[in-house]
Amino acid sequence: xxxxxxxxxSMNHRALLLAAAxxxxxxxxxxxxxxxxxxxAAVRFCGVCTASTKATEAAAAYCAARGQVVTVTNISTVxxxxxxxxxxxCSSAADQKASRPDNGVTTIELKQ
Length: 112
Known about the structure:
Layout lengths: L10 H13 L4 E8 L2 E7 L6 H14 L4 E10 L4 E9 L21
Antiparallel strand pairs: 1-2, 2-4, 3-4
């Protein structure tokens, strides 16, 4: 039984494999302590996912697992790289403060 020479995958086949890998949305996420109650959530190798969203979700889950809430202090991304870093703090819900005393609501009164 004669067998022919082994053939290498065609360019189309390689392109399909690359596209499948990118579309899988595979990402690595890790949380690192950076100080007292402050952390860094890093996401790498995010295919079609939004890395900053994945990192923010990881930060919220990390705090929630400790019975706390997340406060994001900084988000760093590199466009098109599939990577993001989210700096955040965990604190109790009672320690959370509104960013503005009026909760972002502005009232304009017209006087005539």
